[in-house]
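Usage

Read records sequentially. Each one opens with the input sequence:
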Amino acid sequence: MTDGERMAVAITLSLVIHYVAFATAPPTHVSEMGDGGMAVDLTTGAQAMVLAPSVTLETAVSEPEEKGASADRRRRALNAYLERLSRAIHARRMARGDGTRFVGNALFAFTIDAAGRINGVRLVQTSGNGDLDADAARAIAATSGAVPRPKLLGIAPLSVSLRVKYQFGL
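and closes with the structure output:
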């Protein structure tokens, strides 16, 4: 086996090991906040590797602390809901077939009511391109009510931060 072949095998094995490690990693990091709320960060693990949109959630839960399987079911429902919401927003971004390169990330914060309606959309960090920022805001507004919020999440408003990513033409 030549040195080049050894290098190719080593790189291939490294990629496979890293893929398996990230594919089996938990997709979220959930931490309890001091005020009884919960913070969810969807930017860790495999999702960060595939440049998935950054979504964070902070909500003050007034319900008594959940135990065991109930908390796990709620966490899974929350993760699935936030993933569906992020995909729906990203699906509503503009797409231009004229070869124009659009690259940028805009960070927005908003709340989601019990009916799944999005309120109080505000730009937290600009992409540096006003057109992309405006388009991201339109995509978020267009998604309001389109993704049903699971009843398991209760009725407390959810405060969400979402990084809308544009990588068209790359």
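Summary fields computed downstream for this record:
- The mean pLDDT is 75.
- The CA atoms of residues 28 and 42 lie 5 Å apart.
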